[in-house]
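Structure tokens please, single chain.
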Amino acid sequence: MAHSSQWVFGLTLFSALGCGLVAGVFFAFSVFVMNALSRLPAHEGIAAMQAINVAVISPWFMIAFLGTAATSLLAMACAVRRWHEPGAGYLLLGGALYLVGSVLVTMAFNVPRNNALASIAPTDARAASLWAGYVASWTAWNHVRTVASLAAAAAFTMALAARSSQS
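Here you go.
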């Protein structure tokens, strides 16, 4: 039983740290990256964001983003199996917040906007109007991802606190 408890502790800790790390990345984009890009001429902002969207598909970011999704799923499964244990509700909440508010929002809202941006040449006549709409809507959805990831980190942290107060 002690080994199983240590495994759940490690899983919860990794989930909390992963959510916090991803929230930090999203926060940086919401607070200053998109603001800086929006101040550039449209063709420069588009070219920079297109480069960012290629660079983000890196092993390190994918491990953080998708690895946290995997641990969130496992944490939710643990919560259901150990519903009677302290912190189970927080595990379920943390996993749901991350999977819906970060992963699902990314796939449903941010990625389609990135794909639309990738399909246009920065010097295209439609680029400036596309860029203005892109910055506003992409950033709004990024705010959702930021808050959801941070709330998920908080929920996983509360799960750890609930488990440790029981010990």
